[in-house]
Fold this sequence. Notes:
This protein is α/β, with parallel strands linked by helices and 314 residues long.
Amino acid sequence: MRAIGVNAFGGPEVLRVLDLPAPQAGPGEVRVRVHAAAVNPTDVLLRTGGHAVRMEGVEPPFVPGMDAAGVIDQLGPGTGDRLAVGQRVIAMVPFTGPHGGAYAEQVVVPAAAVVPAPRGADFAEASTLLMNAATARLALDVLAVPSGGTLAVTGAAGAVGAYAIELAKADGLTVIADASPRDTDLVRGLGADQVVARGRDVAARVREVRPDGVAALLDGSAQTTEVVPALADGGDLAELRGWAGPAERGIRVHPVMVSDVMLDTDLLDALRHQAEKGVLGMRVAEVLPAEEAARAHRLLEAGGLRGRLVLDFS
C-alpha cells in the first residue's frame, strides 16, 4: 500500500513515499480506500515532532493526515449496519494511533469516526469538511452563546474561522469577524455581520464595534493574550492551539481539542447534513498528487491559502 510519511521529524523534505502493508479492520473498525486526504496544520505538527508526546509506543514511519474521503472496502466485526462496503464516506483519522493517518491509500478507523460523504461533493471537497468543521462546532458548543447573542471570530478567513461563522449564523448568532482587505468580501460572504481589520490590534477594533466587549470569542488566529481585551468581564474565550490562559477579569479560557469529538458520530453526521444543505461550504485551494505532499506542506506553511490543500490518492 502506498502512503506518505516520515521516519524522522523535520522539514517538508522528510516526507517520503512509503510502501506499507495494507491495514486490516478489527472489531468496531472500518477500512477506507482513500481517494483524497486534506492537508491541515496538525499534519505539519506531526511532521515536525509536535505530536511526539502523544505517540508513545508508536514506531515510525509516522503517517500524517486527519481528514480522509473515499470508499469503504472492509468492515470489521461489530460495526453494525449503518455503513456498508462500497459506500462513499468521510472519516476523522486518529493519526497518532497504531494505524497512522490519512495520507495513505487505505486507512483503518473506528466506525464511529466515519459518516457518509455529503451528496453532490467530490472526494476532494468532501475531505476538507470534518476536522475543521468539528473543531468550530466544538468551540461554539463550549462557548454556549445563546441564540441572539454575539460571537467574535479571529482568523475568520481560515478553515476553522470560516466554519465558525457559518455555524454561528445557523445558530442564530450575530458575528463580528476579522479580515484583511483582500478577505473582507469573503468573510462577509460567509455571513459575518460586521468585519473589522485583522492584526495585533484586533481587540481594539472589536471594542470599537462593541464598546463593552463581547461575551464570547473564538480565537482562530491563535493570538491568545492579544485578543483577551476584546472580551467583556467574565467572558469566554475558545482557543484552538492549547493555550489555557490565565486571563484577567474573570475571563474563562477553553482550550478546544477536536479529538474530543472524533468519535461523536451524531455531531459528524450533523455537519455532513449541513454541508449537503449548503450551510457549510467546502473550499479546496488546490488538489495535488499524493507524491507532492512536501510541496503541499511548503504551501501551507507559506500561508495565505483560502481553502484546503488536498492530496489525491485516487
